[in-house]
Amino acid sequence: MELFDDLQIKPEIPDYSEVKVMAELHRLMGFLRFNPDNDGVYVARCAPDHFLLPAISAHFRRRFGNSSWVIIDEKRGLSLSCENGGKPKLAPSDELSKEKYTTGEKDPWEELWLLHHKSLNNEARKNLRLQQQLIPNRYRKYLPEISEQ
Questions:
Q1: Is the dihedral of CA 53, 74, 29, 26 positive or negative?
Q2: CA within 13 Å, CB half, 142
Q3: Measuring CA to CA, how many Å separate 64 from each of 22, 32, 87, 141?
Q4: Pairwise CA distance, residues 25 & 99, whole Å
Q5: What residues are paired with 78 via a beta bridge?
Q6: Burial level of 71, CB count in 10 A (0-12/13-18/19+)?
Q7: Burial class, 29, CB count within 10 angstroms (exposed 0-12 / middle 13-18 / buried 19+)
Q8: 51-74 pLDDT per residue, tens
């Protein structure tokens, strides 16, 4: 022990709140489900615990390229939108924008995604406790593969 007494080694341990924010940021990038509206704009809805829309804008701008998309934060009443690969804009989302970004019919890609999920899902190995641990309840209403169960 005497050998190491004068060494000032302090491991970098992040603050617990920082860990929670980073975990939610990672989940949000994986759990957002986009559906095209009647105008071809891809729309996703979420209600994260933390204000993360500016932090995820670069990720989705790269992911969608020149497509138009909108992420609506229902908890804060804000929307992050990007038109044709331009600079993302953060704006208040009111009732009008909620009505504007609705789909008239069920998305065929969503039906294909549900079929894919159903074919991979092994009902005999279903572990609801683990699923609830890995996918918090606040994300479930936005995931078609979970909300159908």
A1: positive
A2: 24
A3: 22, 13, 12, 23
A4: 27
A5: 73, 92
A6: buried
A7: middle
A8: 999 999 999 999 999 999 999 999
Type of residue at 101: Y
Q: What distance lies between CA 139 and its chain's CA centroid? A: 8
Task: Report the distance separating Cα 72 and Cα 42, nearest Å.
Answer: 11
Tell me the per-residue pLDDT of 104-130, one tens digit each, with 9 for 90 and over. Answer: 566 777 787 778 778 888 788 888 888
Q: How many CB atoms lie within 10 A of CB 79?
A: 22
Which residue in this structure is represented by tokens 């009111």? 94
The amino acid that residue 62 corresponds to is R
Its pTM stands at 0.74
